[in-house]
Amino acid sequence: MYVTVDLRELPPRLSLAEAEDFGSLDVRVVVPSDTVIVPSTLSSLVDGDAQTAEWARGFESMLAFAATRGWIDGSGRIRAHLIVQ
Questions:
Q1: Which region holds residue 70: left if phi is over 0, alpha if psi is between -120 and 50, else beta?
Q2: What pLDDT shows up at residue 49?
Q3: How is the chain split into domains, by residue range?
């Protein structure tokens, strides 16, 4: 049997499949391909020593490029690829 956890929905949707299969138990997670993050959250994660004026310019340049591609939503959040490891 397996449980599917669908993270594309809030709250996540859970479902059970192959309930009669007692020979295995899996949890399968369905994730969206993209997510969004607030830019200030990213900058708050940078080590203090690394947060230089050069870093800030590079970060602002990245955000400006993302805006030209439509990767920043109306709330100012930047779209990012979601990679599950």
A1: left
A2: 79
A3: 1-31, 32-85
Tokens of 51: 């947060």
Which pLDDT tens digit goes with each residue over 58-81? Answer: 999 999 999 999 999 999 999 999
Of 13, 41, 16, 39, whose CA–CA distance to 26 is shortest? 16
Task: Tally the residues of the chain.
Answer: 85
- Separation between Cα atoms, residue 1 and residue 4, nearest integer Å: 10
Strand partners of residue 14: 5
Q: Is 90 exceeded by the pLDDT of residue 85?
A: no
pTM attached to this predicted model = 0.67
Q: How far is CA 30 from the centre of its chain?
A: 13
